[in-house]
Amino acid sequence: MENVPLRYSDELSDEQDNSKEQYQPAKDLRRGPTIWDVLTRWAAVIVLTTLAIDASCLLYLLSHTSNGQALADLNNLPVRSSYIGLDKLYDGQKDMVAISPIFNLPRPIARVDKSRPTESYPRWEGMMSTGRGMIPYNEMQLILRPMVTSVARFRAIDFGMENCSLTLNIPPRGDQRLLSVSTTDHNPILIDVWRLEDNQVDMDNLTWETKPRRTLLEGTFELKPNSTQYLPGFFCPTSSFHHFELSCRDENCDLHVVATAREPFGLYMTQYQTR
């Protein structure tokens, strides 16, 4: 059998068929956005929007702040009561349990010197050494001189005890709590009690120049050892703050009383039941 050579046309047609198989046009690889693409775009939009809002708020606060001071006056912020709802609970009650008066020592008490108007005195002068370091004695010192006055801050405590009276308890002579006292056989030595503006003053750095302004003469005490004296009562809402200054009216006035937090000596506030 003779080998018949392929014709040129047959060879060409075979090559064209092979080229068609080898060079098929590529499919379109482009596709639509997936769910992750959508979430990424929306997350970017939310982040940018949040940054824009924060920047706007910051610019607003800076534009409404002068000299670096806060927008709110911290001295005039309201004091929230911890006895919420008790006024409604006890309103109209007739058979109330009688409660004895309670004594309320000043939170801080500090002295200022008119002759040294820019000098402040440490609140805790006596210190004792312990295994954990130096700690102050828990003492309240009432010091009065012709040029030295004492400033006390009180906070009304408990519920339904809103009738308050400033009280001065001077120990008898020879008592260790009475360090010094001056008396005369003639006219009594008087101590004036001034109500001060109810500003939150830094009592640790109190000076004659920075103490609150006097607004009212609350009353007068006599400098008399072994006596307990009360001023007329005033309304003291629960959790309210009250500031008073004691000053000598006479030149020969001298008083120094030391009391601990558990003893009603020196200056304190007596609270009486009102509900």
Automatic annotation (TrEMBL):
Disordered: annotated segments: 1-26
Designated name of the protein: Ubiquitin 3 binding protein But2 C-terminal domain-containing protein
Taxonomic lineage of the native organism: Eukaryota, Fungi, Dikarya, Basidiomycota, Agaricomycotina
